[in-house]
Amino acid sequence: MNLEELYQRHGERLYGYLLFRLGSAEDAEDVLQEAFCRFARYGLRWRLVRNPQAFVFKIARNEANRFLGRKVGRREGEAAMLRAGGGRFEAALAGPEESEMAILLKRADEIPPDQKEALFLKVFDGLTFKEIGSVCHISTNTAASRYRLGLARLRKAAEGASR
Amino acid sequence: MIDDRSDVETKLAGLAARPAPPGMRDRVLGAARAARAKDVISPRAWFAAAACALLIVAALGADGVLARRQAAGIAALLDGRSTEKSAGLMDWGADLPELAGIRSLVMARAGLATEAGLPLRAYRDLLKGVLNHADPEILF
Fold it and tell me: A67-87: string of b/e by CB count within 10 Å (b at 16+)?
């Protein structure tokens, strides 16, 4: 696998996702580097990968969990992250100029972490439910249900904000 | 105002992602290239690995062949047939004085079986457990 091509295709989006997951630009870059080092070492394994997009996001997610595990000194990095509130839209997205959108973004960060992640991967990274399921180690139906629930909560919040 | 329900998703998708820090691409790809270079196996290492693999396969194959030959020889010996293989086996333990007792016992029973025209398997069954439970003083 050509690393330049891989970065061209997924690098920026992976960075955005890691920024969302970790909330810090430095941490996101560190983890992105670790993920790309891993990609570089997967010489023959790339031939077995059916869906490169889902694969790179899955590896990046695993690396982020490992990083969090090391950082907080616990084995369960993902659990630690969930306790801390999960990813943050505000960290990954540039602050909107409209105040209404800023409120929406703030409300979006209040929905449950697993739903937020499904929403982020679907809306900003364009992953299918099947791919989201593969990345998050859940079934396709669960991924779809998390996305719909998250969207419903966001709509409710948006309606509240518009009143 | 956000009135249309589908508008929420569209508006959210319209938000711009934070830009990557300058030089991140080079840093990430540089680290990945360094990791790849570090992990590359040299031709000499490949050769050594292939040679070791061949040796292991040869050893496993030879072990199987030897085991089959030995089993065939033992089976021939116990059936009372003298074959080229079993003839060699008949000499077992001849050069080890500490096995003389067991050897003479086995050879005597084998001889009896041959004389009586009985299948040696019956005697082999009699021998079962002798070596484990019998008093060593009887054997030696």
Answer: bbbeeeeeeebbebbbeeebb
Helix A12-22 / helix A25-41 crossing angle, nearest 10 deg? 130
Cβ-defined contact of A91 to B18 (cutoff 8 Å): yes
Q: What is the pLDDT of residues A137-161, one digit of tens each?
A: 999 999 999 999 988 888 887 776 5
- Specify the CATH architecture of the domain A3-162: Up-down Bundle (1.20)
- pLDDT at residue number B14: 79
Shortest CB distance from B2 goes to which of A91, A119, A162? A162
Q: Tell if the CB–CB gap between A33 and B13 is shorter than 8 Å.
A: no
What's the distance, CA A66 to chain centroid? 14
Cβ atoms within 10 Å of A23's Cβ, excluding its own: 18
pTM (two decimals): 0.62
Instruction: State which residue of chain A sits closest to B26, comparing Cα positions.
Output: A4
- Comparing C-alpha atoms, which of A99, A119, A121 is closest to residue A108? A119
Contacts of A53 (CB under 8 A, 6+ apart): A10, A127, A131
| Helices A129-136, A52-72: crossing angle, 10 deg rounding | 30
Query: What is the rounded CA–CA span in Å between residue A139 and residue A142?
Result: 5
pLDDT at B36: 83
Q: What is the DSSP string of B82-117?
A: --HHHHHHHTTTTT-GGGHHHHHHHHHHHHHHHHHT
